[in-house]
């Protein structure tokens, strides 16, 4: 979708008025009228994107009560003034506006800013909005309805990527994995299967799981929260409509998170949730990624690896992989087999959607069930 198309769709100057209600959502306190949905928006140097973002909020067709809660994390541009400039338009449409922030020399990070925005809000449900993205008119309404059905759940949606065509594989994955794969593919390098810019959940569930980690730059606060939600028994659900224009740019905070940090979190969660339940397993990929996974496993789980498997005849002909870093004598030697000679369950360390369909065809040929016979760790 082009930027012009987005502006045209979101540019109606006469959005529907919100229907305010006197109903105070259960479990909410404070001297302000409680609202159904708080739109939670951390802001840091987002001035150039805020007009489009706030126009999208103005255009929501949800008829319950809403508020916008903004926390400015020491911006050095005029972000706070831009938001303030929208106050009258938003409040005229029945959307309360809360703006706060700090002016320290350094930003405290997105986790801190989200926590502050949540703390000053009072909605029974939280709709997370990044300042550089654009919510489409049905977003709050459809995610609110889904949250009433799917309790204790992180609700997401499909997205359109801007600029069009950027991160093509990632965007396709966000939009096309099945509801079951929202659970089974949580160990992949893509991160949360319900992506953070689309999150919607109840305030009660947020406080059962959270708050966000406030470690600052380089901390994957969204992945930490996501895994903790799953540990608490939380569900995942995606509204299968595009409700958000998800902007890609080099200044996004995602780029500050180190790959090794994400890798370790994924390995630990895989061991906790999957490998602890298996007596033995095969690592699908005898190359760099498969060997790296093996080396990162606990000694207990290393001993559960019965083999590596691959399609590369050169690796298979070598017959085994020797774990040279081991202090054991003799050093462990793990067989390397052709995938057709290997036994399930598997941890798949080959990237999805990168082999022209060969990996997927090979998996299908074995008639395996994802989440039982194999998990992706790619």
UniProtKB/TrEMBL annotation:
Stretches for region Disordered: 1-31
Boundaries of every Glycosyltransferase 2-like domain copy: 38-206
Origin organism lineage: Eukaryota, Metazoa, Chordata, Craniata, Vertebrata
GO molecular function term, any single one: hexosyltransferase activity
Basic and acidic residues bias (residue ranges): 19-31
Protein name: Glycosyltransferase 2-like domain-containing protein
